[in-house]
Design a protein that fits this description.
This protein is mostly helical. The protein has eight helices and two strands, in the order αββααααααα.
């Protein structure tokens, strides 16, 4: 949700400030830059995830479960059921991986529901000028996660089929041919299509999540900063406060669905891709 703050630069400067990362090694000719805020929130939420699951596991009981245990049991049963229906390989890594991906992506997306000025205001009090709290609104974060999934696809494929079986599929599918000449002629288009398929997977995973979360963050910033525009100066503070509150509530309720759906999609596609890599037919 949003909490607007004034500023001399107007809406454009306000938006630019909120969309600027806390960055190091950023300068003329710099080869790369580190977004410290994305790294910090990703690592912090990962530790929170481990702590919550560990805490729930230590306090788990076979009797009447508490609210935290019940919530985690629902999550585990949902993901485990999805994995059983989708993945037909032998790896025991898939279900824990899917739970981790869904929970971590959901936690990172959930940060978008915190008032947009709250944490940047607190950071400014300790001398930090820029702070973005939604790590999944950073293309570097989503691309890093999708590349990890890409490497896991190769790992599962090689584990299930062996290196020869996995890489031979690059030249034998989707076009199947009979005879030596037919297989040689089909090898190049098969290889070309497989390269495109392998490249598209991490791009689609990362860009889908990034695009949705970036748009959601931007809308919250716009709702918070529209009062800085001179065209709204004639509107009374009371009326605009009501409009802003209603817009915040409506978008927050809708965004809860988005952040949950995007976490589910990222986790579900990961399971599907890993299942495709493990299939031998």
């Amino acid at each position: 949700m949003a909490a607007s703050e004034g500023g001399p630069g107007g809406l454009t400067e306000y938006i630019g400030h909120h969309l600027t990362h806390l960055t190091v090694n950023q300068g003329h000719g710099a080869f790369w830059a580190f977004h410290l805020d994305s790294i910090a929130f990703t690592m912090g939420l990962a530790l929170l995830f481990v702590f919550l699951f560990g805490f729930a596991a230590r306090r788990a009981t076979s009797g009447v479960p508490g609210k935290l245990q019940a919530a985690f049991e629902i999550l585990v049963e949902m993901v485990d059921g999805t994995v059983r229906e989708t993945f037909h390989g032998k790896s025991k890594l898939i279900a824990p991986l899917a739970i981790t991906i869904f929970a971590l992506v959901f936690l990172m997306n959930f940060m978008d529901l915190i008032p947009v000025d709250l944490l940047p205001w607190a950071a400014k009090r300790v001398g930090v000028d820029h702070l973005r709290v939604v790590a999944t609104a950073d293309i570097n974060t989503t691309l890093g996660m999708s590349i990890t999934v890409f490497l896991l696809i190769w790992y599962i494929g090689i584990s299930e089929k062996g290196a020869v079986g996995f890489f031979s599929e690059w030249f034998s599918a989707p076009f199947h041919a009979h005879g030596v000449v037919g297989k040689i002629l089909a090898a190049f288009p098969n290889f070309l299509l497989r390269v495109i398929e392998e490249a598209v997977r991490p791009l689609s995973l990362s860009l889908r999540l990034f695009g949705n979360m970036y748009a959601g963050e931007l809308i919250f910033v716009l709702i918070a900063g529209l009062t800085l525009e001179s065209s709204f100066a004639h509107v009374s503070t009371y009326i605009w406060g009501i409009v802003q509150f209603v817009a915040d509530v409506v978008w927050t309720l809708f965004h809860i669905l988005i952040i949950t759906l995007q976490a589910f999609i990222f986790g579900m596609l990961t399971i599907v891709y890993l299942s495709m890599a493990a299939e031998k037919h």
